[in-house]
Amino acid sequence: MAKWIARRSRLSQEYARILRKTYVAYFFFVALFLSFFVLSIRQFAWWQLSLLVLSAVSFGLAKSTQKDRGIYGQGLRGEKQVFRILKKLSSECIVAPNLRIGKGRRYEVDALVCTRGAVSIIEVKHYKGKIEKVDGRWLVSKTNYKKAIANPIEQLEDRMYCARQLLDHNGAKKALVRGVLVFAGDTLVDTAQQEQLKTEKVEIVFLSRGETKTLLKYLGTHGPAAIPAEKLYEALVGK
Hints:
This protein has helices at 10-42, 49-64, 66-86, 152-169, 191-197, 212-220, 229-237, and strands at residues 3-4, 94-101, 107-115, 118-125, 130-134, 137-141, 146-149, 176-183, 202-206. By secondary structure, it is an alpha/beta fold. α1 runs antiparallel to α3.
């Protein structure tokens, strides 16, 4: 089992914040509505309608978080699926999920895997639908619509460049830096589209296509330089 360095992600923190907001809004909705109901039974007064209005506002606030809860919850499920897989790496590997790297401008990395002579920067995406690339644009398509998404390859390459600079600056110039884009959950892709998405710098893995073993084999492969995983991790994040 890989050496695991746990951190709480910004994604999980934001999801927890949204849930708290939702629970508070539902609490006030129930409390205000019950107060209106009880008071109006005893003796109705016009001011009691304000309780009903506030109750409706609270319910609206609770419902307004539904979209964000879905987006963040989906992303969190994707990360957890990938993290369960990464724990299966050998004890030679160091895995650090939810890591921030960089000096000045800092980047959040979904997961960092260090093995002898190599560093892998992992970006996790979880979409409900099929991934397509049309005229250079990345799209998620469903039955009823298509939605453009930010190019995840460019996001990953920014993090790879940052890691390369840190390694060079801290005495690990010979270390290999790899980028891995993992599509989790039921994110789909056609075989022809998967070929179009390929790039020399980044390995792309779709878990929906049963590529778990491919991912583990790729991440567990050592780099050409005999630099311990511990030294590479320290070069990126410090001691």
